[in-house]
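Subject — a protein and its fold
Encoding — discrete vocabulary of local shapes:
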Amino acid sequence: MGILWLTGVVALGLLAAPGVFAGEDDGLVTAKAFVIMDAKTGRTLLALNPHLMLPPASTIKVMTALMAVERLNLDDRVTVSPYAAAAPPSKINLQPGETLTVRDLLYALLLSSANDGARALAEKISGSEAAFAEEATRQVRAWGAYRTRLATANGLPAEGQYSTAEDLAIIFRRAIQHPELAKIMATRYYTIPGDRELRNHDRFLFTTPLAQGGKTGFTRASRHTYVGRFKNGDQEIIIAMLGSAQKWADMRTLIEKGFEVSGAPIAKLEPLEEKLWFARKHTGRYAKAAVKPKAKRGRAKVVTASVAGSGAKKPEKKKKSSRYKGGS
């Protein structure tokens, strides 16, 4: 099967508005760009605007994590600087002078999208975040991500920072070749010092066994971004997506289409990701995932999702989101 390139005008024989992919079931993908790649061979199976340079948001953290495992030992100790601790949310509230291992910070980075953890790792690798961004840009281009430029270690909005769907897929494919990174990204919950229980932001890990781990991202400038791996039998695909208005819905369409073009079709995925919520216990730990019940008059029951276990509690009221929204 050859590579199928889409320009945003015609997709699989169906007309679509510019920047919109139309599937055979008339499902729309709002993403500005995506690449579906064979995880084993690196061959592109399906793509829309694969070379379009866009802000990648927190998917940059995959690059930061990859730099960390290739430059540092997992048991190395990292002391948190005031600059790292002052990073905007998403963060795990690291304190200046606090010391954690590289391993703990990688879990914080890839599960909870910790912007403070990203800065701490960058400073450990290169001395400063600015020096890290320059060094990481040179390195990812040497790895084949020729259209990527980092200005931060965490993906928060910054001038001149960009990547492409193809570059994200290339970097992610290299990352999962490190067993420790593959393991971390496939982990749903992990506790680090300070009694902080981290919860993976990749909701597919809670809803489908096809998911093997990924990294989400969001800023106002980037919209929703995502890169991750999915497995069906012997077939594995990587999906990188940028500029989406509806992350989970777009990704379900791309997962279905990806396995279809790879020769391992799957049944239509149920829209479960939007129905998940995660309650917090008073200790600050995350409770198990639960499916949000339909709104009813009177008292609503919490229905526990079969994929995520039981014991969920009513969530606290949502806090006002940061204007950065840089680590979803």
Summary: Residues 247-262 form the longest helix (16 residues). The first strand starts at residue 4 and ends at 6. The CA atoms of residues 122 and 129 lie 5 Å apart.
